[in-house]
Design goal:
Elements (H helix, E strand, L loop, with lengths): L1 E5 L3 E6 L2 E4 L1 H9 L9 H19 L2 E3 L5 E2 L8 E3 L5 H13 L10 H4 L2 E3 L4 E2 L5 E3 L6 E3 L1 E7 L15 E9 L1 E2 L5 H4 L6 E9 L10 E6 L2 E7 L7 H9 L9 E3 L7 E2 L5 E5 L6 E8 L3
The protein binds manganese (II) ion (MN).
The site of manganese (II) ion has 7 residues, from loops.
């Protein structure tokens, strides 16, 4: 199943090129979730609600997806985790970059030592919102990533059990302004965490260890890789983070970016494509308005 959020915070099921409105389910799920629950209510309810959502989608009239404003498919992630330096060729390019540009933040090329970092929840946007770029005089980079959406609460999850904790997947951009500040500061600018165009449930991705994806800026191909090159694969990422944090339904987990990161400027269109079921994440970079 493909689930999106669109227009004025509506919830949709995507079938073919059409969005079917299931907002009534979203309203009921949110109303029945305790305020203090550390979850995204819709993601937490997905397994239980799935048959009902499918029936509702079939009965609801469709609207062409090209005519809706896509928002991030997860409205309230409890937290946003992100893996640094998780592709060998990206580690190499960052090493070279840091050797030639003075004053950049130090980084550990070893994910085991560096650990996972967090991005601000309020940096999250969907495709229709654009990326309001700050600091145009500095280098602002795209990072194309496959994103895991956690579906079940767990701590100290062994990698053999990790698949049970995944609700689904989406495409993401971990936007970054390069510089000397702490990583989470530079990567938490409003709009610097992009998710979309929709989320797919885990059953739609038969082999998460072999997901090709590529990123274009305007017409130029910048990144082209596959999750088969991940240093920490998906089960190990979940095992690693859950040794430090309890994972909750709706947590987003950016799995790291491959080589080819590069600068963008206002007006640029970024397009991230992968397997057909994941859709195309297309978003424009724009100037930040003070
Ligand atoms: Mn990243």
């Amino acid at each position: 199943m493909k689930i999106c959020r669109y227009d004025d915070d509506r919830m949709g099921v995507v079938i073919g090129d059409m969005v079917h409105d299931v907002t009534a389910a979203q309203t009921e799920i949110r109303a029945s979730t305790p305020y203090t629950a550390k979850v995204d209510p819709v993601v937490a309810a997905l397994t239980t609600w799935r048959p009902k959502l499918e029936a509702m989608a079939k009965a609801a009239p469709g609207k062409p997806i090209s005519q809706v404003k896509l928002l991030p498919p997860v409205a309230r992630p409890p937290k946003i985790l992100a893996a640094p330096t998780n592709y060998a060729k990206h580690v190499q390019e960052m090493q070279q970059f840091r050797d030639t540009v003075p004053g950049l933040a130090r980084f550990s090329p070893d994910i085991e030592k560096a650990g996972i970092f967090l991005k601000s929840n309020t940096s999250l946007v969907g495709p229709s919102e654009g990326i309001p770029m700050r600091f145009p005089d500095r280098r602002n980079d795209h990072e194309a990533e496959l994103v895991i959406i956690i579906g079940k609460q767990g701590s100290d999850i062994p990698k053999e059990k990790a698949w049970d904790y995944i609700a689904g997947y989406s495409l993401g951009l971990d936007m970054t302004v390069r510089g000397p500040e702490d990583r989470s500061f530079r990567k938490s600018i409003d709009g610097y965490t992009v998710l979309g165009p929709w989320m797919i449930t885990a059953d739609e991705l038969p082999n998460p260890a072999d997901v090709p994806f590529n990123l274009h800026v305007n017409e130029e191909k910048r990144q082209d890789s596959n999750t088969s090159f991940l240093i920490f694969d998906i089960p190990r990422l979940i095992e690693f983070a859950s040794q430090f944090y309890t994972l909750y339904p709706g947590d987003l987990y950016y799995t790291g970016t491959p080589e080819g990161v590069g600068p963008v400027k206002p007006g640029d269109w970024i397009s991230l494509k992968s397997l057909p079921q994941l859709g195309e994440l297309k978003i424009q970079v724009r100037a930040h308005q003070k």
